[in-house]
Amino acid sequence: MRLINGSVLLLRSGGKAQFGTGERNGFLVKGLTPAHIAILKWIFEKQNWYNSHLERRFPENKKEVAEILKVLSDGGLTAKHQVPDGDCACAFHLYGSDAPIKARKEALIGISGLGPLGISLSRKLVACGIKSLILRDHEQVKTRDLCVYSDEQLGAVRQDVAPLLLGVNKQLPNRSVTLEIAICSYLTNPTWAEACIKQGLPHLPIIKRETEIEVGPLFIPGRTCCLHCQHLAKRDVDPEWPQLAAQLTGTDPVMADTSLSEYATAFAVREILSYLAGLPVSLVGASWVFNPADPLPQVRQWLPHPQCGCVSC
Ligand SMILES: [Zn+2]
């Protein structure tokens, strides 16, 4: 067993110990004996241990050892495997088990669109332990992509060099896709959405516009609204929307603002990790719009449209 990186033990008077310093994760344990405290000190000094060693070190205190291990386990402070740095906060604040970390390792995520925003998103996913990515983009690396690609990669096909750039294997595991993500300009690619629906795959669009980035909504076939619902809702508000959408289809791709891309992709990654962990996701029936003028994103609600019929209500 090991302690989650960054676990904190603060001893208080009168047989009390405080674990953690944050409002969300900190907790207090009372009624500890000197034996309990000695065991705790040993564990926090070692950071990782075999339970058999712990029992050998404290042969007279089997009961106390079991009690302390339960406190740490119930508090979400222990894991069987190493939790990657940077994930520890999530791990012990919210989950308290190894399962979400395992889910990240087992996830297979498709990413279509490997411009600077797509690479920024992928990098963050990799940093959080998601290593199996299907990277798709037949465009060549252009001069304006050099903020993320290297000079030697200029002119190469983005999807050929992206695995090297991200340090992920080109060889993909033989398992089904967990989630598809597409980065598009102005509009979600309907062919991509249709293919995801046909395969029953959850899919997340990230849309770039001149001065904003819209993340979501997360489309889960049969459970949430679909892209067509969204299109119908936009048409309800603006009857000329189909005409505008047709014109936007052939428009040149948008270059997203770098700081905004970082902000929006960080939010997207947080949501993706929550989705993989089975935690509530803020992107179900909602998209979040980031723009440089506002410190916080604005939310747009999307419901299944009565004329679509994709979700049986
Ligand atoms: Zn629909």
DSSP strand content: 15-25%
Q: Summarize model confidence as the mean pLDDT.
A: 91
Bound molecules: zinc ion
Provide the CATH top-level class of the largest domain: Alpha Beta
Outline = elongated
Number of beta strands: 12
**What fold name stands as the CATH topology of the largest domain?**
Rossmann fold
> Strands of the largest sheet, in order across it?
7-6-8-9-10-11-12
The helicity comes to: 25-40%
Q: Give me the number of helical elements.
A: 11
* Rg calc: 24 Å
Structure write-up:
This protein is 38% helix and 16% strand. The protein has helices at residues 34-46, 51-57, 62-74, 88-95, 99-106, 116-127, 158-166, 190-198, 227-237, 241-249, 258-277, and strands spanning 2-3, 9-12, 16-19, 27-29, 78-79, 109-112, 133-136, 179-185, 203-209, 212-215, 286-290, 298-301. Helix 1 packs across helix 3 (62-74) and helix 6 crosses helix 11 (258-277). The model has no long low-confidence stretch (mean pLDDT 91). The structure holds zinc ion (ZN). Zinc ion binds at residues 225-226, 228-229, 304-305, 308, 310.
